Amino acid sequence: MRPRKWVEFAATSSRSLLLSLPEKHVRSSSSSSSSRRYHGTLMAEEAKKLAAYAAVDNHIQNNQVVGVGSGSTIVYAVDRLGKTFHLILSTHASKAEYCVCSYARQLILQHGLTLSDLDRHPELDVAIDGADEVDAALTLIKGGGGCLTQEKIVAGCAKHFIVIADYRKDSKALGQQWKKGVPVEVIPMAYVPVSRAIARRFGGEAVLRMAVSKAGPVVTDNSNFILDWKFEHAQNWKEVNTAIKMIPGVVETGLFVGMAERVYFGMEDGRVKTRDPPIN
């Protein structure tokens, strides 16, 4: 009888190595812009899947506590985990209305997995999450979906933080691909002074993120607001991250500096490219 595989699981660089995988993409020959967009979307989704499967296969082992974020790429990571392991999922929040928790709970329950929380599993062996953009030094912008604070908590609890993304998120410098700025979660009463302080000290513009499907601003899983700081030029991101967090009213930033151990990029041609932090 084969032993059952158990993984305890918590929700929620610039050397490159190319991993050759079977090519699964067929480029559209249609000249229609809508057709190109459709095939581009399919290609990006396949790239996410390739990256997620490679990360899970290379980093998840039996008898581990594993954290998972809430990005769109995580769907494929959970799918791979559900096919490979019998899991106990430990979420970082217990209330279903929390965006990361709710999203992860839904995915995990769909795969027949069991839930726990960070109260019971405060130390994680591995955390896997996506990113909005990754630069050559493995500095990340996260928080496009609004869950940056809880995602950073999960990543910070992990011994190893692994990032999965498609080719569109790969940049030499932050801002080349992601044009929506750096998310900053703020206490609602402080969003105006924080916005002014960021613009005054670092340039650019920090804009209150407005909701699309309802009136008013986006409200985070922690009942806070989000400012999107549209910076004008490259910065010393470690110093900027620390300085912004010291502004009264700031809860957390979407800058993940020195946290990622490896990034897996699913590429257009069916390969998976990995990047580790540069050797100083």
Automatic annotation (TrEMBL):
Q: Short name of one Pfam family for this protein?
A: Rib_5-P_isom_A
- Keyword terms: Isomerase
User: Which Gene Ontology cellular component annotation is one that this UniProt entry carries?
Assistant: cytoplasm
- Which Gene Ontology terms describe the biological processes this protein takes part in? D-ribose metabolic process; pentose-phosphate shunt, non-oxidative branch
Instruction: Give EC number(s), comma-separated.
Output: 5.3.1.6
- Has keyword Heme? no
- The signal peptide, as residue positions, is none
Query: Which pathway, per its entry?
Result: Carbohydrate degradation; pentose phosphate pathway; D-ribose 5-phosphate from D-ribulose 5-phosphate (non-oxidative stage): step 1/1
Per its record, the protein catalyses: aldehydo-D-ribose 5-phosphate = D-ribulose 5-phosphate
Molecular function via GO? ribose-5-phosphate isomerase activity
Q: Does the keyword rRNA-binding apply?
A: no
Which SUPFAM superfamilies would you find in this protein's record? D-ribose-5-phosphate isomerase (RpiA), lid domain (SSF75445), NagB/RpiA/CoA transferase-like (SSF100950)
InterPro entries in UniProt: NagB/RpiA_transferase-like (IPR037171), Ribose5P_isomerase_type_A (IPR004788)
Family per record: Belongs to the ribose 5-phosphate isomerase family.
Name recorded for this polypeptide: ribose-5-phosphate isomerase
Species the sequence originates in: Cyprinus carpio
